[in-house]
Amino acid sequence: MGEWKTYKLADICDLIPGFAFKSGDFGNYADRAIKIGDIQPPYVNYKTMSGVNAQRYTSSKLTKFIVRKGDFVLAMTGATIGKIGRYIEDTPAYLNQRVLLFKPHSNVNGKYVYYSLLSPLFQKFVLNHIDSETAQPNISGKSVSGFEVTLPSRREQDRIVDILSAIDDKIELNTRINHNLEEQIQERFDSMVMSDNGLGCCTLADYVEINPKRVLGKKCHARCIDMSYLSTTGPFPTGWEIKDYNGGMKFQNGDTIMARITPCLENGKVAYVNFLDENEVAFGSTEYIVLHSKDDLTPVFTYFLARNNNFVDYATKNMNGSSGRQRVAGDTIGKYVLPVINTESLREFTVFATPAMDVIKNNCFESRSLAATRDALLPLLLSGDLTIEQMNC
Fold first, then answer.
1. Of 127, 22, 143, residue with least CA distance to 81
2. Residue 224 and residue 248 in contact, taking contact as beta carbons nearer than 8 Å
3. Nearest Cα to 42, choosing from 100, 99, 76, 85?
4. Could you read off the pLDDT of 118-155 as tens digits, one per residue?
5. For 21-42, what is each residue's pLDDT tens digit?
6. What is the pTM of this model?
7. Cα separation, 373 vs 371, whole angstroms
8. Could you give the 3-state DSSP secondary structure of residue 331?
9. Within 10 A of 319 (CB to CB), how many other CB atoms are there?
10. What is the rounded distance in angstroms from the CA atom of residue 198 to the CA atom of residue 339?
11. pLDDT > 80? residue 79
């Protein structure tokens, strides 16, 4: 193995803090801006990004704040402080304030730098350099620039990146397949529930059981899916923990869990539960509403209802409570009006959606396993404790 050298991040990378767009710049515009909330590791979530009126500024003023496919960014404040996201969209976006863009120099492999920032060492570094005296915890670009990265030869960097990228490429492929499948199912669902077939109307409570009874004893060791683990774009949670049950909403396979509180409801925090063991009951936040399809209605019906724009708009407009802590009630959800659905349309939807959701689940499990493998290899490869030769690659 060749000589490894240590550099400060500022010596191998340009660090660019985001542009301070004004609040009035955001709206229904074609251009997009990356905010800290859009950093949802390992990616930047394009679907949650806000439109921004970049046209009001000269192109020269915004040039250095353009984020392109393959770039990676850091959240510098808030709940996601220290989180790294890679931008994988073909359409460029703009960098908003409190987000830091990394531009590695040409003499280093940019993805090697990216993987260095995913390491536990960098996360520990961030925690040790947070400015806790401000109203909201944050880390400065100057502090980040002092993080030390140990680099092997360029050839060794490239070989290490090839190994880690092969894993990430498969995870990214699984993600794209899942998004494509979900979009197809959602399109069919929306068409089914928005069609006037002359059969009249009913309420959601006619089709769905809201907050069904599930049994889980106090202090029972069970799987817990916290609100932070719910995805805004897909049916599979990003993770879970095993802990003692001491309250919270309970659910089992076939249920859909959705956030009922702002801003999680508006952001689309939803999960379809089809990944538990047989007869297993799990639990999560008291701020969930649990939906379960009645009778012979396919269980996935409730998930795509929770993702339906009209339904989300109804739920959001019917929230109550003080500003910042508004909630929608389960009884209110049950009054949502939708058309009586043709039996044949439901059958066709079930035949298409059920196996597709199994594919999504299997891809998610595979991606979790791959991510665990990557995360185990990453510190070993970046420290030189494990070499490519030892891996027989």
1. 127
2. yes
3. 85
4. 988 998 999 999 987 777 889 999 999 999 999 999 99
5. 999 999 999 999 999 989 988 8
6. 0.85
7. 5
8. helix
9. 17
10. 9
11. no
